[in-house]
Amino acid sequence: MNVTTLPATPSCRNVSEVLNRVGDKWSVQVIVALLDQPHRFNDLRRQVSGISQQKLTRTLKVLERDGLVERTVRATSPPQVDYTLTPFGHSLAQPVRGLAEWAVANMHTLYDNRARYDAHSGERGSLDS
């Protein structure tokens, strides 16, 4: 299927909604962190560098709501909570990991290209802001 020739239909909007949801910075990192094994909250927070407790809580709730992450409370004292990818989450995790690996492998090329573009066009600032 050639997506570049598809008209902007409701299904295209649905694809955009899904990509916005699962492709945000924190969701990608949480999904990749959970790919190999379940994690407890604080372990996840250490794995996902820079995420606040509040943002991790929100991200996990969104991923749980979408059926990508399962939250399991163990009856211990104090209760322990584990997060794991569901089978649906695993179906997304491999493509997300591939994207993350591509980003890491190409980060320097991207930055070099931006610097070259900015130097050529006389720009001093970033277009990302």
TrEMBL record:
Listed SUPFAM superfamilies: Winged helix' DNA-binding domain
PROSITE patterns: HTH_HXLR
Annotated TM spans: none
Xref: InterPro entries: ArsR-like_HTH (IPR011991), HTH_HxlR (IPR002577), WH-like_DNA-bd_sf (IPR036388), WH_DNA-bd_sf (IPR036390)
UniProt GO MF annotations: DNA binding
GO biological process: regulation of DNA-templated transcription
UniProt keywords, alphabetically: DNA-binding, Transcription, Transcription regulation
Keyword Transcription regulation tagged: yes
Source species, domain of life: Bacteria
Domain HTH hxlR-type: 12-111
Protein name: Transcriptional regulator
Organism ancestry: Bacteria, Pseudomonadati, Pseudomonadota, Gammaproteobacteria, Pseudomonadales
